[in-house]
User: Fold these one by one.
Assistant:
Number 1:
Amino acid sequence: MISSQLLAYVAISAFCILNVSAMDTFIAAVYEHSVILPNATLNPASHEEALALMNQNLDVLEGAITSAAKQGAHIIVTPEDGIYGWVFTRETIYPYLEDIPDPQVNWIPCNDPSRFGHTPVQERLSCLAKKNSIYVVANIGDKKPCEANDPQCPTDGRYQYNTNVVFDSEGKLVARYHKQNIFMGEDQFNSPKKAEVVTFNTTFGKFGIFTCFDILFHDPAVILVKDFHVDTILFPTAWMNVLPHLSAVEFHSAWAMGMGVNFLAANIHHPLRKMTGSGIYAPDSPRAFHYDMKTEEGKLLLSELDSHLYRSVVNWSSYANSIEALSTGNQEFKGTVFFDNFTFMELKGVTGNYTVCHRDLCCHLSYKMSEKRSDEVYALGAFDGLHTVEGTYYLQICTMLKCGTTDLKTCGESVEAASTRFEMFSLSGTFGTQYVFPEVLLSEVQLAPGEFQVSSDGRLFSLKPTSGPVLTVTLFGRWYEKDWTSNASSELRAQALGLMISHSGL
Ligand SMILES: *[C@@H]1O[C@H](CO)[C@@H](O)[C@H](O)[C@H]1NC(C)=O
Ligand SMILES: *[C@@H]1O[C@H](CO)[C@@H](O)[C@H](O)[C@H]1NC(C)=O
Ligand SMILES: *[C@@H]1O[C@H](CO)[C@@H](O)[C@H](O)[C@H]1NC(C)=O
Ligand SMILES: *[C@@H]1O[C@H](CO)[C@@H](O)[C@H](O)[C@H]1NC(C)=O
Ligand SMILES: *[C@@H]1O[C@H](CO)[C@@H](O)[C@H](O)[C@H]1NC(C)=O
Ligand SMILES: *[C@@H]1O[C@H](CO)[C@@H](O)[C@H](O)[C@H]1NC(C)=O
């Protein structure tokens, strides 16, 4: 009896596995959420007030989750800080935090809500996942008392973590990730001592997860792709757009292409703080994206993606190293792009071939504009150095961009609109790093799906004339090994610190 039941069970399981392993694609959803913020106050809210505010946000997220599930989505990502916002001190965020256990405990909060104390937010998220039979990704706060003998234990006796949680379609907690690279001003949270590499398997591929500012660093973002071979990254974020190179849709889609992964980015919607820009990005092209500085509305995006990816290898310097300098003897000039001192060259003709170098990086561009307008100037720029404002990270960047005005001093400024279309472009650079993220951004901060490609020898080139005027075409390289060995003078760091105080960002 028992053995025949077992046999039947095995047979059914095998059938299910065969059946589900045939799931070559899945439907992903991301929700850009216009978060309801708490009162900015120095006095902590009561637990009841905090929960009431979180439930207001969860009411909105419930609408998005239900709608995504009805449209067939298998997984939905919601933004970082999407349940309570970001305006906190260590003390004022405390009433919003819950103890989030290690997923190994095998817990379905919806079925067993009081197993780990008072955890109403995890219970509600779990029930939403279970009821709608969909994976739910959310960002909440974790609190962990410190060990008495821990020298790094904060004076208030606890660690507070910016935390992503994932509940599977039965409501089980399957992933917990504590954000590693805390952004400046995020003083309410601690970083874990060591970067956590969090993955989980599904019938529609292997997933990895990280948060916002983490995308600029090696641990854990690159490890997840390079060593753990995830197919899809889940990315809750509260991203403030910075043009020309770090607008959300632009940089996140570039990371997906550069790393060869699916990337599900859910941003906060808060135009006043330049937070907008969510998307579903496949390695070959964005599948859906949203950028809206005009309304206060949230937005649900859905798209089908491949469950399993086969990564092709790009040698980012091969082509650039194989050719001679293309220059036509234009004058170089200096310009600042988000605090970094680039070397530029103006694109003088309607068509041309140019090379510009900075330190060890030479950038080659061939292009043809639809027309050379007298009211717009474009430049080719190169930067090879340590960025030190709002974070310390080594960059190698080749960029063609539209200058602010026809005054060359404005090359590198934030520009949102342009009028010049390009018939073709081809950009490459003599990169020392293997981590390069290709960006193409059109006027009004729009992406250009299907209009460009990267070749295995490291050229970013157009497949057809651009569908809109161009803001920038960029190869954004990160040289992680150089973040701490390179030589920023103490004066430079002090200067950067001064700037940081007067500026806010990602
Ligand atoms: C914000 O202030 C309003 C009015 O004073 C109050 O009703 C509400 O509970 C407060 N919310 C939080 C989260 O403190
Ligand atoms: C995920 O699935 C792959 C392939 O089926 C397997 O090799 C791997 O061990 C699984 N990982 C986990 C964490 O279950
Ligand atoms: C890229 O190609 C160049 C030759 O074109 C070669 O010297 C270099 O080692 C290659 N880099 C990688 C990471 O394979
Ligand atoms: C940029 O570098 C040039 C030469 O290397 C220097 O003359 C100029 O002052 C620098 N500009 C800024 C803003 O640092
Ligand atoms: C740029 O280079 C291409 C091929 O290398 C050549 O066909 C074209 O004529 C050049 N354009 C200019 C303006 O020099
Ligand atoms: C840092 O700079 C100093 C002097 O400018 C130089 O002597 C030293 O070799 C540099 N170190 C590195 C790691 O580049």
Number 2:
Amino acid sequence: MTEQELKALETACPLVSTLAAAEEAVWVNPERVPFAQANGGLPLTMADVDDAEARLARFAPFIMQCFPETKAAGGLIESSLTEVPRLRDRLNQRCGSAITGRLLLKQDSHLAIAGSVKARGGIYEVLKHTEDLALETGILTGTEDDYTKLASPQAREMFRRYTIQVGSTGNLGLSIGIMSAAVGYQVIVHMSADAKQWKKDLLRSHGVTVMEYESDYSEAVKQGRASSDANPMSYFVDDENSTALFLGYAVAAKRLVGQLKEKNIPVDAQHPLFVYIPCGVGGAPGGVTFGLKQLFGDHVHVFFVEPTQAPCMLLGMATGKQNQISVQDIGLTGLTHADGLAVGRASGFVGRVMMPLLSGAFTIQDAKLYDYMRDLLETEKIFIEPSACAAMEGVVKLTQAPETIGYLRDNGLTEHMENASHILWATGGSLVPEEIREEYIHTHLE
Ligand SMILES: *Cc1c(COP(=O)(O)O)cnc(C)c1O
């Protein structure tokens, strides 16, 4: 983008100046509309989410067989919803926020198999492809068949002839790689420069081929897609456009309904629900948001959080350019300690679906991620990775930034904040090795 083009963009959308300066930004989405109005125009429906949930249920016996740690949950990969009142008090005290109501942590950081939110979408897409292949080749006679057949030697021999490939900053590769290797596929994960060494090592220990690139996430995806297209026996998991990934994430919302009921947490006009989700390319937060809006409509308010150096979704949505613009176009590096969020160009598919649904977005400086990480660890004894800590910026800023204070007022929420519930979507962390945790705990950035 030329200097002149950037100037014109900043005039049309003043927020771009804040983003280009890598300053923390707060954005309230002016295109959001009442859910009833938005829903008719969306490319996916609740029936699609129900279908994904049913598919996961069909695979539960197989999952239990491959991953005995899922036995207690009946083969469902689900995380707990945990109330974190001491974290709320700490944030109010240390950050000057005024969080009222209940603060909860959705611990996707502790999801079985992949230790991140990617255990939802990534594993779902591998299973969906597996079901398609198994039905096609007659390993399964129908969706009523016994899915533990998929673990038989004959089935594994068949799956070995196929390859799965994916581009990743780390966690998606872990999820796709571990699940695909468990089914029996050949797997190639194309890792961007941001990917952590321990994630590559862990994948290789599962027999996964890891290709490393000096370039960013978009380039890793491009390489992966080209490599997969060249092999007729290969399937490419396309994080930028996949509806399967998106629907796998969306199932989280259905499960959350029961968890909120269990905790006697109502969600209605007098009891608003606020959800804060770290965003990279958009698939995970977008899918979860889509599901939440289907189930809670206008009573749920979802905000994304991105690093100041990689605000790709905010940039795409606020300018309306979606995936036609990258953070590098406005002079940012795309480099961040939040490896899971190190994405320069958002998914156009997700951005368009989010336009009428998303409440807004925040950006956060890397240094704060580590402070929030220590806040949670010290007050609640829960470790989550720095990328996941971005969520905390949302709840801290909500009642402090003029933009979101305006949002609360304009939507008649101010008087209900005592009854509000806030969910921090903790997107990853349980697989981080002990020595890396120690390193994070002692990281202090300017
Ligand atoms: C992948 C990831 C996200 C964001 O998901 P996207 O689909 O890339 O937007 C957030 N947090 C962590 C820890 C992740 O690994």
